[in-house]
Structure to design on (670 residues):
């Protein structure tokens, strides 16, 4: 299997006061032809990683190989073969869609006709519109179009759908799937776990400048050893029972110590979360009755109970105790 | 058919420029309004009429009759009480008090009063029978080329080339940097030299438009006479645009804040607005600071444009000025390339 990207012990420290260690030994391998997702919270180091791979930023240490080539030696060849969409580029307001695409296309030796690229991203009917007049989703599709003009072997999309409405997000997903079908390698970053689950063959979860988990979305979810998540809350003013030795009055789980719930059948992890308790469960039909019985014994009243399939978000929460998104 | 990126970059820049209504106003309309305003204020009007007051007294009629055939002033008879007040207010230039001997009352610091005294005295002497042995004839000269507006238009052109070059390159670059557009561009195989050259080229094309418009306007409205060849004037404007777009590049080479670059621009342009002879000749500054004044690129450009437009000076006779402009342009460009931050 061909390797499109290989990073070894990648480090980046920004000169600031105090210096910011954005990457602390990041390891990454992206295979040719796959759609790879970098998933992580704000400030995890996703953009830093991607910009180093794109040759825009210099690493402070480590080793990077892109398409078997190296920055600093094969720059011209690399730039011809990469497509880039940055996290926050505002293209020229007063150029039309077609002018913008044609301009970017002219930079590449094998630049594609503007019409073909606009058709790929569904912007043909907007070809004469000024960029400033486009909607957020259309602008993002134009940014992707500018990444596609060179017919790239490897495409970088830094948060291609952040801030977009569901319909615009789906349009971008379609474009990415289409490219993937045509055998292109795609590296995208996101903090939407549903996006990573739907779009990516493999995902690396990044936190504090390191990869803390790697695999296909289903592998990562399976690593929780429970495909289901049971979320519940109890009324905190129930009578205090024996095992609940931890702090009382915590909203949502009252006097209950989550660790004691690990004894319940088929529960693989238990975690206090804002406003309740999260259980990862292999077989909900075994765990839930046991949970209800336990709460009854403690004299605690259930105020909420939901079950759902585990997601990459749960993987992140299980790994770090924090959520991907701050909100 | 594929076009060269340099061509497309230049064209894109020009289109963006022409699609900005306020920019078009500042570059094309504002200088005309300014030239028209100044042209009106400093138009060559007939000299103000000089009024001579003759105090009502014995012999006043005789004086008025004696002054009537003389030209160059108007005569009024005034009451003795009024005379002093009107002289003080500047309504009349000279008071003549008739009598056995004439008395002239006037302020010697007022040129028109001194002139009036001269003319009145001559007229009275002639009326009394003086014969002038020397004969003279006046030929009056008001030629295009010597008027204030002729001086002004090349200055406006120079000022325009400066602010257009600095803002047109500097402001746009900083904006592109703050939008992360420069960063996006260097992620493509685009040649950096193509980009910077396109920035300067589009600027220089705008200068041609400005030059053509100001010269046609000056020719039609103010009957300006253009002595030098259009080609040499255009070349001077181009060298000026090169100089200032280089300076704009330098000023904008690192910052990504519009406020910072605006401040820097004003700091760089202010001395030239003051010292480079836009509205009045730079020769008026004291000798000690002349070397500084002459080293400014706008002084060189303004002087060169004036010499070429008003006196028909050839390019070889202006190597010094051209050298100053080229030096500024080349040095700024080289420094800018060293300092330039793309992201
Ligand atoms: N130019 C810079 N100077 C100083 N610190 C920086 C700079 N750019 C990024 N950082 C810091 O480096 C860390 C990683 O930033 P990065 O942009 O790579 O995160 P990210 O994962 O892309 O986050 P987000 O999801 O918000 O885009 C952050 O703490 C950020 O504040
Ligand atoms: Mg980012």
């Amino acid at each position: 299997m061909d390797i499109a990207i290989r990073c070894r012990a990648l480090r980046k420290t920004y000169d600031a006061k105090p210096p910011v260690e954005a990457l602390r030994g990041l390891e990454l391998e992206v295979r040719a032809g796959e759609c790879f997702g970098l998933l992580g919270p704000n400030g995890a180091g996703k953009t830093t990683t991607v910009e180093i791979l794109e040759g825009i930023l210099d690493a402070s240490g480590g080793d990077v190989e892109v398409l078997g080539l190296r920055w600093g030696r094969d720059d011209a060849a690399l730039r011809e073969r990469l497509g880039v969409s940055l996290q926050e580029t505002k293209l020229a307001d007063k150029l039309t869609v077609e002018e913008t695409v044609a301009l970017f296309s002219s930079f590449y030796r094998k630049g594609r006709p503007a019409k073909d690229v606009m058709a790929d991203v569904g912007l043909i009917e907007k070809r004469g519109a000024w960029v400033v007049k486009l909607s957020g989703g259309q602008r993002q599709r134009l940014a992707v179009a500018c990444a596609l003009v060179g017919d790239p072997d490897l495409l970088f999309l830094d948060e291609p759908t952040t801030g977009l409405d569901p319909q615009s997000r789906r349009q971008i997903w379609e474009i990415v799937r289409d490219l993937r079908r045509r055998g292109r390698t795609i590296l995208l970053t996101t903090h939407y776990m549903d996006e990573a689950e739907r779009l990516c063959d493999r995902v690396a979860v990044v936190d504090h400048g390191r990869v803390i988990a790697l695999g296909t979305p289903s592998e990562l979810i399976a690593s929780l050893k429970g495909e289901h998540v049971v979320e519940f809350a109890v009324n905190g003013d129930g009578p205090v029972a024996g095992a609940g030795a931890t702090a009382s009055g915590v909203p949502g789980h009252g006097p209950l110590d989550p660790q004691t719930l690990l004894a319940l059948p088929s529960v693989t992890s238990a975690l206090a979360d804002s406003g309740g308790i999260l259980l990862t469960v292999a077989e909900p039909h075994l765990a839930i009755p046991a949970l209800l019985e336990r709460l009854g014994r403690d004299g605690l009243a259930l105020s909420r109970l939901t079950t759902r399939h585990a997601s990459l978000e749960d993987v992140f929460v299980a790994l770090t105790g924090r959520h991907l998104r701050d909100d | 058919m594929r076009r060269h990126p340099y061509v497309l970059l230049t064209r894109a820049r020009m289109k963006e420029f022409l699609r900005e209504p306020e920019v078009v106003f500042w570059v094309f309309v504002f200088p005309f309004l300014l030239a028209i305003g100044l042209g009106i204020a400093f138009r060559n009007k007939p000299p103000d009429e000089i009024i001579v007051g003759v105090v009502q007294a014995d012999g006043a009629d005789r004086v008025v009759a004696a002054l009537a055939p003389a030209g160059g002033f108007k005569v009024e008879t005034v009451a003795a009480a009024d005379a002093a007040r009107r002289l003080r207010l500047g309504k009349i230039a000279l008071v003549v008090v008739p009598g056995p001997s004439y008395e002239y009352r006037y302020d010697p610091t007022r040129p028109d009063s001194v002139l009036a005294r001269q003319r009145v005295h001559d007229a009275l002497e002639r009326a009394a029978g003086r014969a002038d042995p020397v004969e003279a004839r006046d030929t009056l000269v008001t030629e295009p080329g010597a008027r204030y507006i002729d001086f002004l238009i090349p200055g406006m052109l120079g000022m325009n080339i400066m602010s257009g070059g600095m803002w047109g390159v500097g402001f746009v670059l900083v904006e592109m940097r703050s939008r992360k557009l420069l960063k996006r561009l260097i992620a493509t195989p685009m040649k950096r030299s193509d980009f910077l050259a396109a920035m300067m080229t589009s600027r220089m094309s705008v200068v041609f438009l400005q030059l053509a418009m100001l010269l046609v306007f000056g020719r039609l409205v103010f009957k300006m006479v253009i002595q030098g060849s259009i080609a040499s004037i255009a070349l001077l404007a181009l060298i000026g645009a090169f100089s200032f777009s280089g300076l704009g590049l330098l000023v904008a080479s690192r910052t990504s804040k519009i406020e910072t670059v605006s401040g820097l621009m004003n700091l760089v342009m202010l001395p030239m607005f003051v010292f480079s002879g836009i509205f009045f000749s730079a020769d008026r500054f004291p000798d000690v600071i002349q070397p500084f004044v002459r080293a400014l690129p706008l002084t060189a450009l303004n002087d060169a444009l004036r010499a070429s437009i008003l006196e028909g000076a050839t390019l070889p006779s202006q190597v010094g000025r051209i050298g100053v402009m080229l030096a500024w342009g080349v040095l700024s460009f080289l420094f800018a390339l060293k300092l330039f931050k793309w992201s």
About this structure: The interface with chain B takes residues 54-57, 76, 79-80, 82, 84, 86, 88-95, 99, 102-104, 106-109, 111, 130, 146, 150 of chain A (CB under 8 Å). DSSP finds ten helices and 13 strands in chain A.
